[in-house]
Amino acid sequence: MYHKTMFTFSLMIGTLISISSYSWMGMWMGLEINLLSIIPLMSDTKNMMASEAALKYFITQALASTLLLFSIIMLSLNIPYTLNMSEYFSLILNTALLTKMGAAPFHFWFPEVMEGLSWNISLIMLTWQKIAPMALLTYFNQNTTYLILAIIFSMMISGMMGLNQTSLRKILAYSSINHIGWMMSTLLVSETIWYYYFIIYTIITINIVLIFKTLNIFHLKQLFISMNYNYLVKFFFVLNFLSLGGLPPFLGFLPKWLTIQTLVQNQMMTISVLMIIMTLMTLYFYLRITFTTLTLKTNEISYYNHPPMSNFLMLTFNFIALISLIFSTILFNFF
Fold first, then answer.
1. How many C-beta atoms lie closer than 10 Å to residue 211's C-beta?
2. Is the dihedral of CA 193, 202, 166, 287 positive or negative?
3. Which tens digit of pLDDT belongs to each residue from 311-322?
4. Cα-flanking dihedrals φ and ψ of residue 321, to 5°?
5. Euclidean distance between CA atoms 183 and 198, whole angstroms
6. What is the pLDDT of residues 97-115, one digit of tens each?
7. Cβ–Cβ under 8 Å, residues 243 and 251
8. Coil vs helix vs strand at 219
9. Largest Cα–Cα distance of the chain, in whole Å?
10. Which of 213, 227, 231, 308 sees the fewest Cβ atoms within 10 Å?
11. Which residues make beta-bridge pairs with 107?
12. Integer distance in angstroms from the first to the last C-alpha of the chain?
């Protein structure tokens, strides 16, 4: 227990060093502290899948860190290049950061790593581990075309790959890649909206992961069986999943609304239209899961041990998240 607390604290310190550092070397060091702290947390289970996931994560992140360090060193040398090489090294730096956060087309490791993790570590991977690379991307956001390509790839790949998944962790991983695309588009226009988006995405993800962790489920079939026993949890799960998709009555709609509005104000119509169209693919598989959960009642014998759902934390979190859009719009009218 003590070492878990120590590594969690070290994980947070690594991210904070990275985002508050004055030099690129300090930022790289923060990312390394963060990486070396999460590996023991990942592999600290009796599950063999967790050790495999930790190894995959370590290899990918080490590769990205090497690329990052290489580009930092080459950019800091200030050699008078003939072919304007600094552009190429800035592309390598951006690639390293996109690999670290799991954005497409450098996303291949992310669903595979997620598949072997417990829900606690999955939550850290989906939320906290995105902060440092995204913050560093805001500091070095020179090549807009490259970032727009990454946004389009993230939207497209997450929509197509999420359609045929039965694992809840992989579905959340592809969902995260889709939201990374949205968050990167906010970095093109406004950092403030990125803060809003990230906080709201974190709240919704915490809700969903809390439900899955409490029910101890990892696959869609388990989800359909377990939801038969508690209709309040089923109701909250469905609403949270729709919120994650960004449907209007829920809180998840607010950051997407702000993003689209700001992109349109900055004359970026094409990218906003493409993003809306391609997000419909992810919304389709969210709706498919929610409708199936609502309508399907399996009659087979289940050895599922359903815990009592008087989970105050889960119910409170869900209630706050689901009614927050009303308060958000009221606050906007006040200020």
1. 26
2. negative
3. 677 777 777 777
4. -65, -35
5. 7
6. 999 999 989 999 999 999 9
7. yes
8. strand
9. 72
10. 308
11. none
12. 45
